[in-house]
Amino acid sequence: MPEEMSIFPRIALKPEVHDYLRNVFINKEVLAAVSQGEAEQRFQRLLSCLSHPPALTCVRASTHLASLEEIQHRLGEELKQQQKCDSQSEDISITILPHPHIPDVLLLPVIGPRPVVQLSSEVIVGAQCGSAVLRGAHVFAPGILATPKFMKTGDAVSVFSDLEGKCTRGNKDFKGKRVFVGNGVAEMDRSNIFCSDEPVKGVGIRMVEPLYQSPSFDGVLPSLAFLQGEVVALDKIRGKVERILQNAKALHLDCIKAHCFNSIKAVCTDQAQDTEGPPFPPQSFDRVLLDAPCSGLGQRPSMACTWNLKEICSYQPLQRKLFHTAVRLLKRGGVLVYSTCTVTLAENEEQVAWALNTFPCLTLQPQEPHIGAEGMLGAGLSPEQLRLLQRFSPELGWSVAEARGEGDSPTEQPESPTSLAHRANKDTIGFFIAKFLKS
Ligand SMILES: C[S@@+](CC[C@H](N)C(=O)[O-])C[C@H]1O[C@@H](n2cnc3c(N)ncnc32)[C@H](O)[C@@H]1O
User: Which residue numbers delimit the SAM-dependent MTase RsmB/NOP-type domain (predicted)?
Assistant: First the structure.
């Protein structure tokens, strides 16, 4: 794809990570199936689409508390209210559509890039903060790296994302590589941001004209959110566990228990162990979801990834340790789902090949719904096995017209189910799902 057709430059990777990923996407098995040119083009498309936001935001609705239609309506009202506060405009329309294939998922089109005129005052934010702005967030003060020398509360500014991590905190006139993400109004003086004795908190720049208009769920999801079922959740980060418990409480889901625990050690050897909390006895779960810690290279939008190859490659061994636990905890006849939000073979198809070799009790199962692409060639899996995997590969479906929201505007005509389904299933983050049965 010609570079000039993209709004942002391709995601910036360390050269060693770029080469590693290129070898993944242009591996021998791929080259036996498609031409070198086609494989190279797919890889370049992946790098381009990773720096752009997906066309839609997906929300899983918890339909045990209200019908999908009611949630759709309430979500629309809350988002409208929120946007009214942000843009001070009365003329606000929010488009929320049911997913054409998944009954409890709502889709919110991301609108952009919009024709926003850049201002002379520049605020530079870190790449992660810039990505959050492209997904509908305001700029929180800790993410701000540079502001104009005399920036005061109420000043209108243009916000740019620092592409190479070169802007130092407190800079006044950064001229390095940066990309425009929209216009906002300062909620703090420069001195409050950089010269405070306390760690600075709260919104620093309120975005009024973001380049991409994306719904923000700040303060919305806890009342409407999206979990269902009987779940024991383990995470080693206490803050995540607390958030899960808060969400469960807001949803009146008493059946969700969450524990701060190292999952690698989640199987107990003492059969008399109380099963209220971890560690748990072997074979005590009907289903296990291993939503594994991963290199996260499928996350979009991401302008830059600063990780080195050692960091990227550190996940495969960790995932295998977690896999051992997951298989031990699962009952015979139980289902194990393994998922990641990355695009490497090492963390996806290679893990499946390893798991099938290591645990003869596991077999791959069909997935319902199956809306992603099949698994990627390169890990020695058979065509039948690849067909049972779901790899969400935005590079296979991403086109610039879609990324720009050209064609049918979401706010005008309702989008045709075919076109919506195409965008919802193809222009996604990079994601991988494998489903196993333990016999
Ligand atoms: C992809 S995220 C899972 C997200 C989760 N499904 C959710 O919806 O919040 C992977 C999680 O694994 C956690 N993690 C990493 N190593 C772990 C370990 N050894 N034990 C437990 N959790 C771990 C990370 O803290 C991270 O939150």
Answer: 228-439
